[in-house]
Amino acid sequence: MTTQHLVDQIHKKKSFLCIGLDVDLDKIPKHLLATEDPIFEFNKAIIDATHHLAVAYKPNTAFYEAYGLKGWQSLQKTIMYLNEQHPNIFTIADAKRGDIGNTSTMYAKAFFEDLAFDSVTVAPYMGKDSVEPFLNFKDKHTIMLALTSNQGAFNFQTKTVEGVELYKKVLETSKTWKNAENLMYVVGATKAEFLSDIRKIIPDSFLLVPGVGAQGGSLQEVCEYGMNDQIGLLINSSRGILYASKGEDFAEAAKVQAELLQSEMMSILLKKTGA
Ligand SMILES: O=C(O)c1cc(=O)[nH]c(=O)n1[C@@H]1O[C@H](COP(=O)(O)O)[C@@H](O)[C@H]1O
């Protein structure tokens, strides 16, 4: 999917919501456990109930890999369902990959070609030659960790290296890489106050912003400091939407939570664009 297509979808749906499909069999409603593929059944019900409210879905691969081959098959069924039923929805494989170039190429093929995701999350730690193989794919997006939502972000990401905080160095340096226009960045919603500085370095890039809901980040603050002329934000919520109810009404309850976020986004967009 092109970035312009994503921007068009945001305006059409009046939403920049990304729903994180982090499926935990200990948390899903018990009646689904009797089905052949509980993870897929859960995702399908969530997607059916919320697809008009979200512009992106983000399965975190850990939640599928944890269930072995069956989990990977559920991931494959989920992405196929999204691509077939909702081709206008942006898909993110949250896999946080990155390795020597030769290996990164295979990771990129796995997520962009085999599974046909629109984007994948990567870690910047191994540098240019570990990320550039992901950037080679036309109309695919590589979402690189910049400043993460967790407490450990302060261990390395905000430390000063050659007079600059490391996360800023990551942003600056990555702009010089081949096909850098295919980069997006992760900034945690819990770090909203850093967004003004981040926007000085990457004014035009899209940001994936996880950490609203269960981690306590503020949607209003993220938009105040992080929104650009193209909107430039995908705000993710996973547990806050998926596990709103443990009962048979789980999909309806998820829809209500997604509606709350989407209507807040609609008001913000209205203020920003007047449309
Ligand atoms: O890359 C991510 O999506 C990510 C980066 C980050 O800094 N913090 C973060 O929470 N995430 C992911 O975003 C999701 C957040 O889930 P909830 O806290 O349940 O909304 C999980 O899949 C996390 O792995």
UniProtKB/TrEMBL annotation:
GO terms for biological process: 'de novo' pyrimidine nucleobase biosynthetic process; 'de novo' UMP biosynthetic process. It comes from the Bacteria. Signal peptide: none annotated. Residues 16-254 form the Orotidine 5'-phosphate decarboxylase domain. Its EC number is 4.1.1.23. Pathway: Pyrimidine metabolism; UMP biosynthesis via de novo pathway; UMP from orotate: step 2/2. GO terms for molecular function: orotidine-5'-phosphate decarboxylase activity. It catalyses: orotidine 5'-phosphate + H(+) = UMP + CO2. It is an enzyme of class 4 (lyase). InterPro entries: Aldolase_TIM (IPR013785), OMPdecase_type-2 (IPR011995), OMPdeCOase_dom (IPR001754), RibuloseP-bd_barrel (IPR011060). Keywords: Decarboxylase, Lyase, Pyrimidine biosynthesis. Belongs to the OMP decarboxylase family. Type 2 subfamily. This is Orotidine-5'-phosphate decarboxylase. It comes from Aquimarina intermedia.
